[in-house]
Design goal:
Oligomer: homotetramer
Order of helices and strands of chain A: EHEHEEHHEHEEH
Helix content of chain A: 25-40%
Number of helices of chain A: 6
CATH class of chain A: Alpha Beta
Largest interface: A-C, 32 and 32 residues
Strand content of chain A: 15-25%
CATH superfamily of chain A: Flavodoxin domain
Radius of gyration of chain A: 15 Å
Structural class of chain A: alpha/beta
Shape of chain A: globular
CATH topology of chain A: Rossmann fold
Amino acid sequence: MKIAVVYHSGYGHTAEQAKAVARGAQSVSGAEVTMIPVAEDIAWDAIDAADAVIFGAPTYMGSASAPFKKFMDESSKRWMERKWANKIAGGFTNSASQSGDKLNTLVSMAIFAAQHGMIWVGVDLLPGNNNSKGSVEDLNRLGSSLGAMAQSNADEGPDKGPIASDLKTAEHLGKRVAETAARFK
Amino acid sequence: MKIAVVYHSGYGHTAEQAKAVARGAQSVSGAEVTMIPVAEDIAWDAIDAADAVIFGAPTYMGSASAPFKKFMDESSKRWMERKWANKIAGGFTNSASQSGDKLNTLVSMAIFAAQHGMIWVGVDLLPGNNNSKGSVEDLNRLGSSLGAMAQSNADEGPDKGPIASDLKTAEHLGKRVAETAARFK
Amino acid sequence: MKIAVVYHSGYGHTAEQAKAVARGAQSVSGAEVTMIPVAEDIAWDAIDAADAVIFGAPTYMGSASAPFKKFMDESSKRWMERKWANKIAGGFTNSASQSGDKLNTLVSMAIFAAQHGMIWVGVDLLPGNNNSKGSVEDLNRLGSSLGAMAQSNADEGPDKGPIASDLKTAEHLGKRVAETAARFK
Amino acid sequence: MKIAVVYHSGYGHTAEQAKAVARGAQSVSGAEVTMIPVAEDIAWDAIDAADAVIFGAPTYMGSASAPFKKFMDESSKRWMERKWANKIAGGFTNSASQSGDKLNTLVSMAIFAAQHGMIWVGVDLLPGNNNSKGSVEDLNRLGSSLGAMAQSNADEGPDKGPIASDLKTAEHLGKRVAETAARFK
C-alpha cells in the first residue's frame, strides 16, 4: 500500500508536520510512504501510483501557499484523465495564528480532492484544549476536523514548532489515512 | 448494506433530488435505502445503523436550511460518542440560482461529516455544460465536485424541477456513495 | 447612527461576546446600539432601521447555530426587497475549540450579508499569540480576520469565558463597525 | 478616486471580465482606473495608492489560479504594515463550469481582503436566470453575491466568452465598488 505525502513548506515548519504525517502513515502495516515536496521536480508518477495522497501546505494570506497552488493547478491533466479517482485523500496545514484562516486551506484541499474524485478522510478526533483541564499539549489542541492543523510561532524555527501535540495530531492523521486506505484496498 | 438519505425539503424540490439519490443508491446490489426527512421525528436509530449517510438540504440565504441545521445541531450527542465515525458520507443541495452559494452548503456538510469522523465521497464527475457543445441536459451540468447540485426555478413546483440532468447527477451520487460503502465494508 | 447586534447564544457565552461588541459600538460618538436576540420575537424593524448590523452566533457542529440559521432564513423577504442593501455588516462567533470550524460560521455570515447587499467589515487586527512572546491575553489571540472569534471552555459558564482578550477583540469589532458606519454615513 | 483592478488571466477570459469591471468603475464620476495584471511586474505603488482594489482570477482546480495566489502571498509585507487597511475591496472570477467551485475563489478573496483590513463589497444583485422566464442573458445569471462570477466555455476563446450578461454583471460590480469608494471617501 502506497502513501504519498505531497507538501510545500516555506520555512521548515510544515515540513516537520509532513514528516509527522509520514511517520503516522508508516506505522501502519504494509504502508510504503513517499515524501513529495512540490518545490522540487514533482514526482508525478509516485502520486499516480499511490493508494492514498495526503496534501500539506502552510496557510499564507488565508489559503494554501502559492507553490502548493501551482502544484494543484498543474494536476489538471490528471484531473481530466481521472487518474486519481477513488484514491484516499487527507490534508494538513500550519500557520502562526492559533486559528487564523487555516480552515480555508483545508476546505480548498478537500474541494481539490473532490475534483479529482478522491475520497476525503479527516482527523476523527474530538477537540483538545477546549475545557478547563485542557492544555496546548492535548491531541488536536486546535480542534480541527477536516484535516490536521498545526501552529508555529512566527519568530521561531522548525526546531521549536510545530509543538509536540501538533506533530502527534499530524501523526494521527497519517495513520488514519493509511488505515483507511488499507481497509479500502 | 444500509444507506440513509437524511434530508430537508422546503417546497418539494430537494425531496425529488433526495428520491433520485435514493434510487441511485438502491441500484447497487445489496443496498437497503432509508429516507429520513428531518422535518419529522428523526429516525436516529436508522442513521446510527447505516453504513453510509447522504445529507441533503436546500440552500437558503447562502447555507443549509434551518430545519437541516437543527438536525445537525441535534446530532452533537452522537458526535461526542463518535457513533458515526467511519461511516461513508456524501451531500446534495438544491436552490433556484444556477450557482448561487450552493457550494457553501456542501462545504458545511463536508465539515459536519468530518466532525463526526465520517469519510466524504463527492460526485466524481467532470463538469457538464462547460463547452460549446454542452447543454443543460448534461450530467453534472452545474460542474460540482464536493457533492451534487441541483437547480429548480423559483416559480415552478417540484413537478418541473430539478430537471432530469440534475436528478441523474443525484442518482449518480447515490450510486457512488453506495458503491464506496460496499467496497469499504 | 443605529447599530443592531443580532445574535443567538445557547449557554450565555456568545451573549457575553455580543455585549462586548455592543460596548465597543456604543463607545463611538453618536452610536445608538440595540441588542436583538434571535431566540425571542425578532425586532425586525430595529434591524431595518439600523445603519450597521453585527451578526453573532455560536459555532455548533461546524456552522452557525440553528436558531441563528432560522433568523437568516426568515430574513429572505427583506432580501427580496433589498431592505438591508448598503448597510454595514460584521460578524462574530464563539465555540469551545481554539480554532475548530469557527471560520466556516464567519464565511457563512459574510456570504449572507453579501446576499443582502451589505458591506462587510472585518476585525482589522494583526494576529495575537502567534509568537514566542505572545499569550492568550493578546488581542485577537485566535488570529481571525473576517470577524471576531472567541473561545470558551466547554465545562465553564459565561462567567469564566470568553476570556478578557476575546471580549476586547469583540469590543474592537463593535467599535470598528460603528466607526465605519459613521464614516459611510 | 483611484480604483485598481488586480487580476490574473490564463487564456484571456478573465482579462475580458477585468476590462468589464474596469469599464463599470470608470463610469463613476471622478474614478481613475488602473489595470494591474499580476503576471507582469506588479505595480505595487498603484495598489497602495488606490481607494479601492478589485481582485480577479480564474478558478483553477477549485480556487484562485497560482499566479494570483503568488500575488496574494507577496502582499504579506503590506499586510504587516496595514497599508491596505480600510480600502474598499471586491472580487470576480471566471471558469468553464456554470457553478463549479467559483464560490471558493471568492471566499478566499474576501478572507484575503479581511486580512488586509479592507472593506468588502459584493454585487448587490438578485439572482438572474432562476425562474421559468429567465435566460442566460439575465444580469447575474449565475446568482452570485459575494463577488462577480462569469462562465466561459472551455473550447472557446475570449472573443466568445464570458458572454454579454456576465460582462454586464462584472461592469455592475466595478461600478458598485467605485460608488462605494466614492461614498466612503
